[in-house]
Amino acid sequence: MDLWLPICQRGCELGIVRVFHSKHWTAGFIAAEWSAANRQLVLCTFCLRHRAHLFVAHLGRFCRWRQLVCVAIYIAEISEESSSPALIATIEQWRTIGVLIGCLLGQHLQYEYVAVVAVCISCAFTIMFPFSQESPYYYMRKGDVMGLEKSLRWFRGVRRMSDRNRPEFVRELDEFKRGMERHTIAQDLVSHKYLCKMAVYTLVLFVGVQLSGTYVILAWSNQILTNDVFVGFSIDISVTILALTQFIGATIAVWLATMLKRKICLFVSAFVCGLATICLAIFIAVGVRGQLQWLSSALLLIHIFFANFGMYSLLSLIPSEMLDTKLRVSLTSISWGVSWLVTFILIQYFECISTIIGLHGYFIIFGVGCTAVAMLALVGLPETRGKPLDEIQQIMGFRSESEVSKNSVPQSGRINLERY
């Protein structure tokens, strides 16, 4: 198999060293210097598998699912309300940086050595996990007042004794303490109708975004880019262009995360991606060549850009603003599993499936996935930017007769109907 398949096919999976930290430490690896710790997402590109080492790949994939769920929740818990969207969108920015670095390294190293580099860097970051600070909500759930205050001081930059009397810090600390004292628990469980609705929406969102085909295109770039798209460019240059386009799209999303309306951004991005891939499928089917070949290249770049600008960047942000923590963890975990299973099937059996439906058939699948996300954003999802969780839940059809405290502490056997 060509060099790019093992590099890009596992381009965003974590290494086996993540197994030992997938439960507790994965949720705690973002400390005060969140950007430095977030660089571990760069490793997602390097953690590759050899064809004989399927067990390692499955473990890495499992840990990636756990990490993706924990990272978004942890960022939402440690960040202030104004900066939370940009920080959550940063997850995808670091992923695209990892893809770009992996592509550049793959041009000069054999992929076996790229994997060795991945393990070394991953181990270096992994040993830092025990020194990371836990979320204030973690200590609130444990009832540890001292740990809560220490964690909150850490994440709010309160280093001096005089800063501890700042009004905003005192107010936030009092809110945590009141929530710890009340231990208010929701009495009404989530209704089956609401639960099924949220499960379907989350599944369509995750599977549709993964069906945009970014990973399939990178994994099989040796066939897709050579035969039908970037004719005239080498595989190395073509993949680097795609990786750079991903990074640019994700970076712009981070810059605009606090201003973008989620519903409109997701709809426009998914619609443009779907339209671009369907047009590209038509071009491939009719065999567009010669002077019109640049149209195929432009369509692919548009698809990659908008997929990372709107779809992947909002994949973790929208559930964090729309669902409470316990429900979000369950639904996003299941949805990640199903979406990666579908992606793995499309990558692993690319040659078999493409002989049946053709390469243009693959792009039609990508277009259908993007269109499904666009329709979901248009008719199903509410606008979540700047709205409290209670209002969003009412829009989505949830009704509860009991009053739920915003600072309630989760207990076993109940679904706490709050974001944290």
From TrEMBL:
It comes from the Eukaryota. Gene3D superfamilies: MFS general substrate transporter like domains. It is found in: Membrane. The chain crosses the membrane at residues 113-132, 198-218, 230-257, 264-288, 294-315, 327-350, 362-381. It holds the Pfam family Sugar_tr. One of its GO terms (cellular component) is membrane. Keywords: Membrane, Transmembrane, Transmembrane helix. SUPFAM superfamilies: MFS general substrate transporter (SSF103473). GO terms for molecular function: transmembrane transporter activity. This is (Mediterranean fruit fly) hypothetical protein. It comes from Ceratitis capitata.
